[in-house]
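Continuing the series of single-chain predictions for the mutant panel. This is the parent chain; the variants come on the following pages.
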Amino acid sequence: MIFAALGIAVGCYYAWSGSLWNASTWWDVAWISLVLVPAVFGFVLLALPLRRWRGTLPLGLVLVLVTWGLEEASLNALADFSKLAAASLLGFWFITLFETLGLVVFVALLIPWIDAYSVWRGPTSNIVSNHPHVFTSLSFALPIPGEHDAARLGPPDLLFFALFLAAAARFRLRVFWTWLALALSFGATLAIAVGADISGLPALPGLSIGFLGVNADLLWPVIKRGWATVAGGSRTPP
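Parent structure:
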């Protein structure tokens, strides 16, 4: 019921966002950050029980192909949510490869540097600068109300959102607060980019900070013991 209601609300917004109110830039930032992003990534939270399903990898790969077909058919809104579903399922599968919480912490500390390099000097920078249509096709759109434009998230942003959220569930961290921190981190990144008048910022540093920040006291034993999860502790899943 909740999933269906959220789907109708978000679907209506994506269908008619260009005909809605046209507010100032900072009202747009507030709307996307505090309303649209939590609504969109509410689907990932509701789908979290699927992380235990063994079909996440094959279905995620099938949805990659479905996304390509939808893009070719110019069904952009449907393609966006196919991207979200595919990335989420692949993120849920990917977390099953992490045997310890320490590995998740290590990745959370490493990926911000890789993402920052990619966005400013690496592959992402090259794609955005020289092949903007490719970035548009690959990215997930967050439509701006009253305009035919959107803020955009890359596929890794979607995948690591699901991965960190699934990690919180698997290793019995703070699931809801992790979800909220991850969602708000996208808004914070958008606000910084707008305030600094930068065309794009890496979103993974914010995701990592959100994941590590709300679970810091639970993760400290992991860091203290050299990336190994607490042996036999209550936060290791059966």
